[in-house]
Amino acid sequence: MKRIWIILLGVLLMVSLAPWAEAAPVSLRILYVNDFHGFAEPIKQTNGKPSIGGIAYLAGAVDRARQQRPSILLAAGDMIQGNAWANLFLGQSVIDVMNAMKFDAMVVGNHEFNFGPKVLQERIAQANFPILGANVEGLPSLKPYVIKKLNGIRIGIIGVVTQDSVNTAPKNIAGLKFTPPESALLKYLPELKRQADIIVVLSHCGYPVDRELAAKVPGIDVIVGGHTHTKLTHPEEVGNTIIVQAWEHAKNLGVLDLSVEAGKIVKFQGALQEISPNTEKPDPQIQAIVTRYEDLANPPLRQSIGETLVDLDASRVRTEETNLGDFIADVMRQTAQADAAIINAGSIKGSIAKGTIRTQDVYNALPYDNYLIAIQLTGAQLKEALEHGVSQVGKPSHRFPQVSGLTFTYSRSAPVGSRVREVIVGGQLLNLTKKYIVATIDYLGAGGDGFKIFAAALERRDGGEMDRVVYTDTGNWLRDRVIIAIKAQKTIAPQVDGRIKAVD
Amino acid sequence: MRVYVNDKPVELFPGMQVKHALIRADEMAKITDGLKAFDAWGHELGLDGALLEGMKIYVKKNPEGKPQ
After folding, report:
1. Closest to A228 (Cβ–Cβ): which among B14, B16, B50?
2. What pLDDT shows up at residue A466?
3. d(CA A308, CA A486)
4. Are A445 and A373 in contact, with CB atoms under 8 Å apart?
5. Mean pLDDT across the stretch A275-291?
6. Who's near A212: CB < 8 A, 6+ residues apart?
7. Could you say which residues from 1 to 60 on chain B have a Cβ atom under 8 Å away from some Cβ of chain A?
8. Which of A13, A45, A107, A175 could anchor a disulfide with A159, C-beta 3.0 to 4.6 Å?
9. What is the pLDDT of residues A50-103, one digit of tens each?
10. Where is A195: in which H helix or E strand?
11. Tens digits of per-residue pLDDT, A242-271?
């Protein structure tokens, strides 16, 4: 009898010491962001709408939210790459801000691989918080999960990233393996559940995949998502799993309040809090970091990267071949190791004067965030692209082409669609049935400025879409490729060499 | 990669984003005019958002009753 009482007392003692043994539910708050992409400054909106976002203002909102409830702050990936404020410092500026904001955990996003494995290792080492990647094999510094204790509740946080990361920066993920997120969760969740009261999945897989994970993988309490830049104004539920995502670019802070009782979420509510810099106060410490890096950005932008012995002309790119157009198209063709390259005039903006070339000059010449792609086209399709390029000659046109690896003649007076005359590629007359690798920019690849032939070529596939796509470089803007080329050559003096000639 | 814009299929390069799908489907001008892109569940999408195979995008005004 005495033994039974001792056992009962022991059980009662254990129960009373359990973190969830309190009579009232325990309140927790999850604060979350995703797909920041280095947009540190507030974003100006069109149509008279006030500015939105700004990481210092978001940090101010975090400060206020933390004062209301015990909170953890999570990031669902794609934080360190995108905007120049991040790119000029290879993401160091972003991690500095995240450290100061005391993030609790982050999952690696596909764009975290954009600067290469060495830089990613540096960013992981710089971070005062764990960076997770349960389905990434070959990078031990990425942890599969972490456990955070908050208000007596043990929160198991596990991170998974899209397998499409292999398409984002193919060269940068050599040696890494991205396993299916579902498999990684099924692998780690049993051991994580033994150590945690609630399970949070930090997912950089996209909202449709998050819904599938919630339906297929039992035991997930919350998915904090990213990748698709989805604006989930309120939490969604799939089965017993809550799914949240906070749009993009620090425009919103996600706030999810949980009531936990006996190790289970018994109540929740959440919303996105819009970040309004016109009416809210910034966190002064974070604002100081943002400003410091902006000041540091000026010297790199003014940095000399080389010299041009001639003026580089962008003023006439919309009507004729220019030496700046030739140079940029050459960089495109050489970088993608293509037979030819085509860029539209509308993507080239500013001339560069003879003399020292500074980083800012190239940014002015190529102001848009375009990246390089290359695709196999038949000779007929390549000719069709050139036809489109000269379809508006006679007036300045965004679609006028600047080219490399080929020369062509055209008639101004011929009907649209039959203006192109002789096309020479690699010193040979164009063969309409032969396949050529043609480099261009993503904007044209999607059909921008009416260049529909590139995307249409994907639809007319005979050997499969991926066979035709031979190069994508989503992690590097074209201007950065041009800067690298100028630095390598040190001195340039491109001349107009007769690639595009009107015959009448 | 194939996605659907207003139920019309469009083929795109891998790694392309919502804005590329809208350009390909000739829907970008509507965004400039104030319409927005939404997913199959009615949630607004950022133009830099990633695309997934088979994803459905709809260009429209804010649905009634959905605070955005």
Report:
1. B50
2. 55
3. 9
4. yes
5. 96
6. A182
7. 1, 10-16, 18-21, 23-24, 26, 34, 39-41, 43-52, 55
8. A107
9. 999 999 999 999 999 999 999 999 999 999 999 989 999 999 999 999 999 999
10. none
11. 999 999 999 999 999 999 998 899 999 999
**Entry field: residues in chain A:** 504
Q: Which two structure tokens, joined as six digits, stand for A358?
A: 């500074």
pLDDT tens over chain B, length 68 residues: 899 999 999 999 888 999 999 999 999 999 988 899 999 999 999 999 999 999 999 999 876 444 44
Any residues with CB less than 8 A from the CB of A325 and at least 6 apart, and which?
A: A314, A317, A343, A345, A348, A402, A403
Residue A37: its chain B contacts at CB < 8 A?
48
Give how far the C-alpha of residue A104 lies from the chain's centroid of Cα atoms, to the nearest Å: 22
User: What are the phi and psi torsion angles at A313 (to 5°)?
Assistant: -95, 120
Name the pairing type of β-strands A71-75 and A26-33: parallel
Torsion angles phi and psi, residue A307, rounded to 5 = -140, 145
Cα–Cα dist A180/A172, whole Å: 19
Query: β-pairing, A340-344 with A401-404?
Result: antiparallel
CB pairs under 8 A between A and B: 107
Alpha-carbon dihedral of residues A393, A399, A400, A402, nearest 10 degrees?
-170
State whether residue A406 is helix, strand or coil: strand
CA distance linking residue A292 with residue A276, whole number of Å: 22
Cα–Cα distance between A263 and A266 in angstroms, integer?
9
- Could you give the ipTM of this predicted complex? 0.93
DSSP string, A416-462: TTS-EEEEEETTEE--TTSEEEEEEEHHHHTTGGG-THHHHHHHT-S
- Residues of chain A above pLDDT 70, percent: 94
Q: What is the pLDDT of residues A29-41, one digit of tens each?
A: 999 999 999 999 9
Residue A423 confidence (pLDDT): 98
Instruction: Name beta bridge partners: A471.
Output: A374
Of A206, A458, A472, the CB nearest to B15: A472
> Cβ B44–A247 below 8 Å, yes or no?
yes
Average pLDDT over every residue of A369-380: 94
User: Considering only alpha carbons, which residue of chain A is nearest residue B2?
Assistant: A459
Q: Which of A393, A296, A365, A376 is nearest to A337 (CA)?
A: A376
Can you tell me the mean pLDDT for A317-340?
97
